[in-house]
Design a protein that fits this description.
Layout (H helix, E strand, L loop, with lengths): L6 E8 L8 E2 L4 E5 L6 E2 L3 H9 L11 E5 L2 E5 L41 H7 L5 E2 L4 E8 L10 E7 L2 E7 L1
Antiparallel strand pairs: 1-8, 2-7, 3-4, 3-9, 5-6, 9-10
């Protein structure tokens, strides 16, 4: 199971008819929640990756307190900004020391591989687009900020020039 904050993630496997290569596109898929319209449109994987890479770009409620005397001040509760592009001056305004560079070794001295970044996984595991010459599988990302217990009925809708289908999800 893969989770991306602010998205419902649906794993899809597409089996094309034998000897055909229909075009698969994320724009062919929508998600209907609890029978309501309009349906949710699938989002492009790079958009999901940007959302995961830069969580400070999304506005969410937060509690921030600040105090100061003279030219000294302190801010508590603010999320640290993330670098939007190399050399982003916005991230150097903080007074915190820069984080230590990872050494790639743990305390036992064994070198460990770098863990995969969530934004890279989101793009790599997305449903590939293009002609489907055989079965393909991947994730579709639908924007959603609700709670799982609110979902009573979830339907994946597929509309393409070659046909349409509705699949009830559990």
């Amino acid at each position: 199971m893969y989770l991306a904050e602010g998205f419902l993630v649906v794993e899809v496997t597409f089996y094309p008819p034998k000897d055909e290569a229909p075009l698969v596109a994320i724009g062919h898929f929508t998600l209907r929640l609890n029978g309501r319209k309009p349906e949710l449109l699938a989002q492009a994987p790079p958009f999901v990756a940007a959302s995961l890479r830069h969580p400070d770009m999304q506005q969410r409620p937060e509690l921030v307190a600040s105090a100061g005397v003279g030219d000294a001040g302190v801010i508590v509760g603010r999320r640290p900004p993330t670098e939007r592009f190399p050399g982003d001056p916005r991230t150097t305004r903080d007074r915190l020391p820069p984080p230590r560079a990872p050494t790639g070794e743990d305390r036992s001295g064994i070198e460990r591989p770098e863990p995969a970044r969530p934004e890279d996984v989101a793009v790599a595991q997305a449903l590939p687009e293009g002609p489907a010459k055989g079965p393909i599988a991947g994730y579709l990302y639908f924007p959603w900020r609700g709670k799982a217990k609110e979902l009573k009925k979830v339907e994946l809708l597929y509309h393409s020039p070659g046909g349409a289908a509705t699949l009830a999800l559990r």
